[in-house]
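I have been asked to look over a protein record a colleague put together. Alongside the sequence sits a line of tokens, each denoting a local backbone shape. I have pasted the whole thing underneath without changing anything:
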Amino acid sequence: MKLQMKRYVSFFLLASSACLPLAAKAQDSAPIKADPEAARDKISMCIGCHGLPGYKASFPEVYHVPMIAGQGAAYIEAALKEYASGARTFPTMQAIAQSLSEQDMADIAAYYAAIKP
């Protein structure tokens, strides 16, 4: 009886561990729900450049910083992902985007999209 119980326990543990990656994958593929209110605690790094009309960054070159208030959420989120991946290159934006989660990006994009310029 003990041997049979050990087999059941072993089978159960093996089967359970095989399901863990599937559960993690299901959570990863769940759509992200953007929360513009949650972005209020995340935008301090954006305001310093994108909140100043006519602001130009001077590193690594003089660059006109675009206003992002009122820009489409999909565009902002795509731009952040491109900076994070290196598809867009600007050192400051790359560093900031790489520090954000996908949830952060969605929240920030929704926040700025809701602002009327």
Observations:
- Residues 8-26 have pLDDT under 50 and may be disordered.
- Strands lie at 56-57, 63-64.
- The longest helix spans residues 2-28.
